[in-house]
Amino acid sequence: MQRIIEVNQVTKSYQNEREAVLKDVNLTVEAGEFVVVMGPSGSGKSSLLYAISGMDQVSSGQILFNGLDITKATDEEMSHLRLVKMGFVFQHAYLLKNKNICENIMLPGIRLKNRTKEVIIKETNELMKSMGIEGIGDHTVSAVSGGQLQRAAICRALINRPQIIFGDEPTGALNKRASTEVMEILCRLNKQGITLFLVTHDAALAAKADRIIFLSDGRIQSEFRQKRWQCDSAERTDRLNGWLQNQGF
């Protein structure tokens, strides 16, 4: 299996922090994996995601993405890499209010400039249909529900056919029904071959992953592995909750 991410002895410090938020982290992610990072608030979960995706620089160590050392990449190189190979879904959709839903989804495709606008429109419509939001393309951001916004954000993350999707609390702002729907979408995408690397406090979402990494005080303390794609198993969730309790979570 192809290794998509390799993290070697990564440390991250901020000037206003007394302690490093990441401390000698080592981690690998294989192509097609579904990996979730959990841990208490302030444990470094989001810092790890931002470091791996090149959104934030590390203080020391090495991060390889498909063999490329992104700690040495220029801002321009990282911007292009994120546009072509990575998709992002955050707790809030962060769609532009001066553009409708369809225009927001199209933006990364327009920026990439590798296909015509007509093709991007067609692909946008196909993505929206696959996510069950084909009827809201001309709606403003303020005229749709939180669940619809998050589905639109997933469409935007997918428009350039990324190799990996990074998610920071992708269900954190949703009600139970919308959260379940987004979980199902993420599982489906993983089955289609897209690598997922998510940060979450949501054990129900984490239970769907192949591998759960527990982070505490900036260090990986433990890992929990599960069989792939058994997303509907209550026993699977119970096992994870038991493991999390043993971690003091």
Tags for this entry?
249 residues, alpha/beta, 6-stranded mixed beta sheet, globular
Describe this entry's structure for a reader.
The chain has eight helices and ten strands. With 249 residues, it is an alpha/beta fold. It has a six-stranded mixed sheet, sandwiched between helices. A four-stranded antiparallel sheet has the order 2-1-4-5, covered by helices on one side. A hairpin with a 2-residue loop joins strand 4 (60-65) and strand 5. The longest helix is centred in the C-terminal third of the chain and has 16 residues, at 176-191.
Shape assignment = globular
Q: Report strand order across the widest sheet.
A: 6-7-8-3-9-10
Q: How many separate helices?
A: 8
Largest sheet: 6 strands, mixed
Helix content: 25-40%
Portion of residues in beta strands equals 15-25%
The overall pLDDT, averaged over residues, is 93
Any idea what the radius of gyration is? 18 Å
The secondary-structure element order is: EEEHEEHEHHHEHEHEEH
**Content-based structural category:** alpha/beta
In terms of per-residue confidence, which ranges show pLDDT below 50 for 5 or more consecutive residues?
none
Number of strands: 10
End-to-end gap: 32 Å
